[in-house]
Design a protein that fits this description.
Layout: H1 2-20, E1 34-35, H2 41-47, E2 50-56, H3 61-76, E3 82-87, H4 92-97, E4 105-110, E5 113-119, H5 124-132
Parallel strand pairs: 1-3, 2-3
Antiparallel strand pairs: 2-4, 4-5
Length: 135
């Protein structure tokens, strides 16, 4: 009987410590691409643990090809990664700052730091494979 009381006591202590532990604020991870601009790129890259930013332009054929893939991945990877879209024609400061010379370019930000750039229009399976290593 004493052993059972000891187990109960330890269990209760553990539960109480979990209750009293400060909880990290949870951030909403959108399931569709967010629009990012020169003014919001730093805030977006710092807000989300993993941000994949699609740098594109309206006139770019390969950009339009991967657009639907980015939409699908945003929904499929919801909760694990956030996807953003940045129009380089409308946001030249960001394009210059990150030396984007070819589009589409996907910039991968982890905890606010640029950790990779994927240049070109990848088929969905290739893109998923490349992104998987950052999840």
């Amino acid at each position: 009987m004493d052993e059972l009381e000891e187990i109960k006591k330890k269990k209760m202590e553990k539960m109480m410590s979990e209750i009293n532990k400060p909880h990290e604020p949870t951030i909403e991870l959108p399931g569709k691409p967010i629009i990012v601009t020169d003014a919001t790129v730093d805030a977006a890259s710092n807000q989300y643990p993993l941000l994949i930013l699609d740098c594109w332009a309206e006139w770019c054929g390969p950009c339009r090809m991967i657009g639907p893939i980015i939409e699908e991945l945003a929904a499929e990877m919801n909760g694990r990664a956030v996807f953003g879209k940045l129009n380089v024609d409308e946001n030249p400061q960001t394009a210059n700052r990150f030396r984007i010379s070819a589009i589409p370019t996907l910039m991968v930000f982890k905890d606010g730091k640029l950790i990779d750039k994927l240049v070109g229009a990848y088929p969905k399976p290739s893109l998923v494979a490349k992104i998987q290593k950052y999840l």
